[in-house]
Write a structure and sequence with these properties.
The protein has 250 residues and is of the alpha/beta class. It has eight helices and nine strands. It has helices at 20-27, 31-35, 51-56, 73-93, 111-129, 167-179, 203-212, 239-249, and strands at residues 41-43, 62-65, 103-105, 108-109, 134-135, 149-155, 181-190, 215-223, 230-238. Strand 3 and strand 4 (108-109) form a beta hairpin. Helix 4 packs antiparallel against helix 5. 38% of the residues are buried.
């Protein structure tokens, strides 16, 4: 199932190791909702996260896609460890962007980054045992059929690195994520800002362009448990789904 000849991520893209609970907090999801999904879940990019292994324990069918999977597993693990070090440095340098109690002290990561260590270990074991769950692929072209996934998640990529992914690339990538998602499913994308906390200044224009492609969008706002801060997630759906729902109500 894995593709060949796919280049690795650009060097400035971190291969992160987020655990399932962090996914739930970032995308405003719950374990119960994931367990009740009527179809497969896609994580793109998957990095070295524990989502595939942990969500499988809930009964989910999960696939992760990432260009890094074209690399040998030890190299991916090394990049994940480098990402952990980079995150520790960023948290120390810009603590206002990261909610307490993620740092025990400004100069020492606490339980938060230790959760990354556990997630990375889960990823390494699961990808070695079940490589078919980890597909080497890069946006904006994914090797999946139309409507394959009930829910698609995309975190810390398209808006996090504006120097690497401009508006045209973002539009093509978002449309591709919708293409591989079922008409009754949805795509969730976060964050909507870059690594320094600067919000995407062309999001409205991007959403208009998505609408021209018959893709409905909304910015879902919610208060994240633990710190009370308002979070924003871009939610995308096939526009036909909205029309069908309105017809059923009538």
């Amino acid at each position: 199932m894995a593709a060949t000849g796919i280049p690795p991520d650009p060097p400035d893209v971190l291969v992160t190791s987020r655990p399932l609970d962090e996914y739930c907090a970032l995308f405003d999801l719950t374990r119960a909702r994931l367990a009740a999904l009527p179809g497969p879940l896609l994580d793109c990019p998957g990095g070295a996260a524990g989502l595939v292994a942990e969500a499988r324990e809930l009964g989910c069918r999960v696939v992760a896609a990432d260009p890094a999977y074209a690399l040998p597993l030890p190299v991916v693990a090394d990049r994940a460890r480098a990402a952990r070090a980079a995150m520790a440095a960023a948290m120390a340098a810009r603590p206002h962007l990261y909610p307490a109690p993620r740092l025990d002290r400004p100069d020492r990561p606490g339980r938060y980054l230790r959760s990354w260590d556990r997630a990375r270990e889960l990823f390494a074991a699961d990808s070695a045992a079940h490589p078919q769950r980890y597909v080497a692929a890069a946006l904006p072209r994914l090797p999946f059929a139309d409507g394959t996934f009930a829910l698609t998640l995309s975190g810390y990529l398209l808006f996090a690195y504006p120097g690497l992914f401009g508006p045209e690339h973002q539009l093509a990538a978002l449309a591709e994520l919708v293409r591989v998602t079922a008409p009754d499913g949805e795509v969730r994308v976060q964050p909507l800002y870059d690594g320094r906390g600067r919000r995407c200044d062309h999001l409205d224009r991007l959403r208009y362009a998505l609408g021209e492609r018959r893709i409905a969008s909304e910015v879902h706002r919610f208060r994240r448990a633990g710190d009370g801060r308002t979070r924003r997630v871009l939610v995308l759906r096939a526009a036909d789904r909205r029309r069908r729902a309105e017809t059923n109500i009538m």
